[in-house]
Amino acid sequence: MSLLRALLVVRLRLHALFAGRQLDRDLDDELRFHLDREIDAGMARGLSVREARRVALTAIGGLQPRREEIRDTRGLTVLWHALRDARIAVRMIRRRPGFAAVVILTLALGLGGTTAMFAVVNGVLLQPLPFDDPDRLVLLSSAPRDSLFGRALGLSEAQFLDVSAGNRTLEHVTLFASRPANVTGAGEPLRASLGTVTAEFFTVLRARAALGRTIAPGDEDPARDPVVVLSDRLWRGHLAADPQVLGRAIKIDGRAHQIVGVMPVGFSFPDEVQGWVPLDVRSWIQSGNSFTRPAMGRLKAGVTLEQARAELASLAPGPDTQPDAGNWRIVVLPLKERAVGQVREPLAILAGAVGLVMLVSCGNVASLFLIHAARRRREIDVRIALGAGRRRLIRQLLVEGGLMALLSGALGLLFATWAVPALLSLAPARAIPRVDLIRIDASVAMFTLALAMTTTLGFALVPALRTTRWAVPVRPTGRTSTDRHDGLHTILIVAEVALAIVLLTGAGLMMRTFLNLRAVDTGFNTENVLTVTLDLPEGSYATAERAQQFQRDALEHLRVVPGLGAVGAVNWLPFGTAVIRGDFVLDAGRPVPADVLVDKPVVSAGYFQSMGIRLLKGRDFADSDSASAQPIAVVSRSAAATLWPGEEAIGQRISLRSQPRPADWLTVVGVVEDVRQQSLTGDVGRAVYQSYLQVPRLPFLTHLTFVVRAEGDPVTLALAIRNAMRGVDAELPVPSVVPMHDIVASRIAGQAFQTRLLSIFALVALTLTAIGIYGVLAYSVSQRTRELAIRFVLGASSWGVLRMVARRTLMLVGTGVALGAAGAVALTQVLRGHLFAVTPTDPIVFGTAMASLLAAALVAAAIPAWRATRVDPALALKED
Fold first, then answer.
1. Fewer CB within 10 A of the terminal residue: the chain, N end or C end?
2. Using an 8 Å Cβ cutoff, are 227 and 257 in contact?
3. Closest of 461, 499, 479 to residue 779, by C-alpha
């Protein structure tokens, strides 16, 4: 019976929903019937028709309240009222399209930026890594106890073996890294990024091959044939997705590797590599060399991150050459930090800036709703006088706000679909990780609509509550000089001004930083300079003599290219991928300055000239400075001043080995200008340059960048340069020709990206603030028309009225600027780590921000002020 009763109730309520209009007509007939009977009864008692109708309405309780009471008993009342209120809201929006358009566009602008930034944050920071149980994956690094987790830190080979054997909290541990390599035998010669990993790498990630197998224990044995696992991208792009590829050999750096597997689509960890080769840890230890590589492990079931940190702290050895191992520790972090750790703070800054723009948009919308509600007072009073309840009116106003929220949310999503690609196109290459996960999906859409509904309904609720607070007779139509919403208007505009000041100040600080970075003297001239970087394969260039011969041949081929001036080569280009830095020994037992390391570039003759590095003293390298000649060096200005203070550097002797042999001593023959090797913001490195032809150690020679200075437009010479390099060794992948200017610009690309975005956000906030000031002043002038008319009648001049409007503008802006400046001093401190040669309280930036906002406010106030001076006293008083 209970089920039948429930079905009957549902049927009756659905009938009430879909037959609502007919039921309303029946209800009106019924109420009129009872009203006529009460009127007839009153007239029978001797009352007049008018008096009888009044008594009858009183007895019934009013027609409209009685209708609402009976309708509420039908069921599905909320949905029925919502549909009816939605129809009314559409009519109201159509009657006032200007107000609706401004609200929707203003809110959509803020929602579009917020949605785009949320899509980025969601894809980069919130989405999990594409591995099985990714929260169990951790990074491991040996680090000094008084330092933070460093970007380039990891474990050495010996530390890796100690941690692998000694821990009880990790299932497996692996070392991994990426390096460029020359790949041949897979279509066109290719310079690809390869991962060098231990056998546990794929086990830690729980990754399986789509074809064949992954690297297995024993594959790293140097006695066995080398193997390689390919990425799906390399397999499809260069091997035509050949299913018979297993067992085929390709050459990596001139050495044949057997293909044993192909990974699934999308797997390219770490650093979007295109293949993986085994890493022989024990061979590195036996060779006496040691490299620090990233390390990764997987937590055992039930083990927490804190438990792993506590256990591994006891296994924290120092570097192999570090005597004070007790000052070192093992740092354990989630693997996700490797991808997002460097971008979390910049994204937080940009997200905060977008949030400020959203708040400015919200302030504008709130002010518009207050003004709109004030202009509807008479309408609300009439509806109250006709019997409409307060709840009914509030619901109607909220439905109108909700409809505009839906429209603004949809438009905001449309803006975001354009803004996300635009934002990513502005970002430097590889500046934003996990780009493939940045998209407008269902979660982002739900976030946008929820934000739109929350903000708009919140702004619609306050005016609705205030406007319907008092049930009063119909107000007079005359305008007054006061407004009970005026205080809220003032607060909102002051808040908008304060937020705009914070954004303008932040953008100004980043702009000053960007300009200061561009003005830094790098020590070389990038104009018309092109670079070609390559790595010589060890299989083809197994000795220093062969690498040096390649360098000679390449320089000869480049020198005959028409349009090229100076030509040179260097192993580690300034602002390139890395630099070799280390200790040294001075001649005659001279003490080495404490904590001083020197950069150790290896260059050819003509390098300084091609880079535009000034020779200050002595001479440059020459082609005659070969292995049979006296070993020489050229030092930088700061190195000469530090190593031989107050003395002449020319003729001094230095060795770049810790235990030099007689042949390892270099005689200084020249001093060149300092060069910033790695950073525009750090200290200038002290450099000791060696001749490429005099360095016998192969690792210093296989990574090589040729630098050429063009006599004309360098872009037109790129093809000729590539052909010249192909003529030296056709087996080498044809390298890209990159302007030196682009390499330097890439070092400040992050600051340029942040500066552009913050400037855009600040401009939007400034525009919205100006619109808000205009709206409030225009409304204030319209409400004070009668007051202004009286002022004109009493002899006030137009200049006096202009001063009145200007005084109110300055009051609003001045208060907002004062509050915003105080907030900016506090909030811009988060930018301190991103600033260069400028302080967070730079007076020029603050003064410019305040002046810009004041100018925008005065422009916004011009039209309301002009309208105030055009008030016709006679017409205004007559209308009143």
1. N
2. yes
3. 479
| pLDDT beyond 90 at 505 | yes
75, 91, 109: which is the final residue of a domain? Answer: 75
In angstroms, what CA-CA distances link 661 with 628, 632, 644, 668? 16, 15, 22, 17
> Peptide bond preceding 270: is omega within 30 degrees of 0, i.e. cis?
yes
Number of domains in the chain: 4
Q: Let me know the angle formed at the C-alpha of 617 by 614 and 623, rounded to the nearest 5 degrees.
A: 75
> Of how many residues is the chain composed?
880
**In this structure, what are the phi and psi dihedrals at residue 236, rounded to the nearest 5 degrees?**
-80, -40
- 483 with 626, same domain? no
Judge whether 532 and 576 are in contact, CB under 8 Å: no
- Maximum alpha-carbon separation in the chain: 136
Using the 8-state DSSP alphabet, how is residue 641 labeled? H
Mean pLDDT of 40-60: 78
Tokens read off for 771? 């619109």
- Looking at the fold, whether 819 and 687 belong to one and the same domain comes out as no
Residue 209 pLDDT > 50: yes
Instruction: Answer left, alpha or beta for residue 221, where phi above 0 means left and psi between -120 and 50 means alpha.
Output: beta
Cα angle 276, 282, 284; round to 5: 75
Reading the block at residue 403, the tokens are 């409809």
Q: Classify residue 74 by its DSSP letter.
A: S
**Hey, is 600 helix, strand or coil?**
coil
User: In sequence order, what are the residues at sequence separation of 6 or more whose Cβ sits closer than 8 angstroms to the Cβ of residue 79?
Assistant: 17
Backbone angles phi, psi at 344, to 5 degrees: -60, -45
Rounded to a whole number, what is the distance in angstroms from the first to the last CA of the chain?
A: 68
pLDDT tens sequence across 172-198: 999 999 988 889 887 778 889 999 999
Compute the half-sphere exposure of residue 137: CA atoms within 13 Å on the CB side of its CA: 22
Specify whether 599 is located in the same domain as 696.
yes
Angle at 609 between CA 628 and CA 634, to 5 degrees: 45
Instruction: Find the domain containing 13 and state its range.
Output: 2-75
The whole-angstrom separation of Cα 267 and Cα 142 is 28
* pTM, entire model: 0.82
Query: What would the two tokens of residue 784 be?
Result: 């004070």
| Cross-strand bridge partners of residue 654 | 586, 666
Residue from 566, 705, 701, 684 nearest 635 by CA:
684
Tens digit of pLDDT for each residue in 116-133? 999 999 999 999 999 999
Residue 84 lies in a domain: no
- The answer to whether residue 875 is domain-embedded is yes
Q: Say what the pLDDT of residue 398 is.
A: 84
Burial class (CB in 10 A: 0-12, 13-18, 19+), 94: exposed
- Band (pLDDT 50/70/90 cuts) for residue 612 is very high
Distance CA 80, CA 355 (A): 37
Of 713, 730, 763, 608, which is closest to residue 671 (Cα–Cα)? 608
Q: What does the DSSP 8-state code read for residue 656?
A: S
Q: Which of these ranges, 84-93, 407-416, 721-730, has the smallest mean pLDDT?
A: 84-93
Supply the pLDDT for residue 480: 42
User: Residue 600's closest CA among 524, 669, 701, 507?
Assistant: 701
Q: Cβ(154)–Cβ(295) under 8 Å?
A: yes
Question: Rg of the chain's alpha carbons, rounded to an integer?
Answer: 38
Q: What is the rounded CA–CA span in Å between residue 350 and residue 116?
A: 11
Mean pLDDT of the 564-582 span: 89
Partners of 328 in beta bridges: 144
Between the CA of residue 874 and those of 298, 782, 795, 870, what are the distances in Å? Answer: 85, 16, 14, 12
At 707, which amino acid appears?
V
| Residues 328 and 353 reside in one and the same domain | no
Are residues 185 and 318 both part of a single domain? yes
Model confidence over 320-331: pLDDT tens digits? 444 445 566 788
Question: What is the residue type of 779?
Answer: Y
Assigned domain for 114 exists: no
What is the average pLDDT value for the chain, to the nearest integer? 85
